[in-house]
């Protein structure tokens, strides 16, 4: 289920975090991301739709995790909550030991920008910018205005080269195929050297061959840099390539 679905509003009025969720468990230094007792309900007219009901997971540093489940099960909602894009009604999310939803909004924005890389199914590239500028965007958002732009350009070009698109740096997104656009999105997600990449159906709009290329780049780059990866997917190939597979069912995650 998508967070921004028309006519669906989050249910308000409940405490964001319970005391037990805030305290959490003793932190494991190998643990990068943890979610505990996450609940999310939407108001649909006069009815409530419970999407997440006590969802919990732990992701270790350098680990890849695939989340599968039926359409509308809440996979995208969960991913948005894990990345600090959408608040749960109750429960907690800890990123590198820091409580995302207890942090002030400005701090949460900074954590999201520096520690999390997002790859969405619909690419979200800006058509008025060229490919190189799109990849540079995350760094431009968190770097002080006086920082050398050439350093950002050098890193962005290196990432484009890693996904085989250095020659397309001056092109606009509309001049690229869907697979090329998604590879640009993968490079952009890595621009700030995040600790974790969250990918929402990254090959959903691509044919099998192109999707396989994007998949190779996504897993290859994250593993090369020792970064964690959480992928929401219906794709069996993505699931089989991951270290662990979790099924989101009845609002909770189950190990497969």
Structural write-up:
The model is unreliable at 1-25 (pLDDT under 50). This protein has helices spanning 19-23, 75-82, 105-115, 131-142, 149-162, 178-189, 208-224, 236-241, and strands at residues 9-10, 31-44, 47-60, 64-68, 90-95, 98-99, 116-119, 196-200, 228-232, 244-249, 252-255. With 256 residues, it is of the alpha/beta class. The chain has one domain (9-255): Rossmann fold, CATH 3.40.50. It has a 6-stranded mixed beta sheet, with helices on both faces. Strands 1, 2, 3, 5 and 6 form a 5-stranded antiparallel beta sheet that branches. The longest helix has 17 residues, at 208-224. 41% of the residues are buried. Helix 4 packs parallel to helix 6 and helix 5 (149-162) packs across helix 6 (178-189). The radius of gyration is 18 Å and the shape is globular.
Classification by helices and strands: alpha/beta
Number of structural domains = 1
Gyration radius over CA: 18 Å
Helix content: 25-40%
Low-confidence stretches: 1-25
CATH topology: Rossmann fold
Q: Secondary-structure element order, as H and E?
A: EHEEEHEEHEHHHEHEHEE
Strand content range: 25-35%
Mean pLDDT: 86
CATH superfamily: P-loop containing nucleotide triphosphate hydrolases
CATH class: Alpha Beta
Instruction: Give me the CATH architecture, please.
Output: 3-Layer(aba) Sandwich
């Amino acid at each position: 289920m998508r967070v921004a679905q028309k006519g669906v509003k989050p249910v308000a009025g409940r405490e964001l975090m319970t005391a037990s969720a805030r305290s959490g468990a003793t932190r494991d230094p190998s643990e990068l991301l943890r979610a505990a007792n996450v609940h999310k309900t939407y108001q649909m007219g006069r009815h409530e739709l419970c999407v997440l009901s006590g969802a919990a997971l732990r992701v270790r540093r350098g680990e890849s995790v695939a989340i599968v489940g039926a359409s509308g099960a809440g996979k995208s909602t969960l991913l948005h909550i894990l990345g600090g894009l959408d608040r749960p009604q109750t429960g907690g999310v800890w990123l590198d030991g820091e409580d995302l939803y207890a942090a002030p909004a400005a701090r949460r924005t900074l954590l999201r920008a520096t520690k999390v890389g997002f790859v969405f199914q619909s690419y979200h590239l800006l058509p008025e910018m060229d490919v190189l500028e799109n990849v540079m965007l995350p760094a431009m958002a968190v770097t002080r205005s006086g920082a050398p732009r050439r350093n950002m350009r050098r890193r962005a070009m290196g990432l484009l080269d890693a996904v085989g698109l250095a020659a397309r740096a001056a092109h606009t997104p509309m001049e690229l195929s869907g697979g090329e656009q998604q590879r640009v999105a993968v490079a952009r997600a890595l621009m700030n050297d995040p600790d974790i990449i969250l990918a929402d159906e990254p090959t959903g709009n691509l044919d099998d061959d192109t999707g396989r290329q994007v998949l190779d780049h996504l897993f290859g780059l994250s593993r090369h840099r020792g970064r964690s990866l959480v992928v929401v997917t219906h794709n069996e190939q993505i699931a089989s390539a991951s270290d662990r597979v979790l099924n989101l069912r009845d609002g909770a995650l189950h190990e497969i």
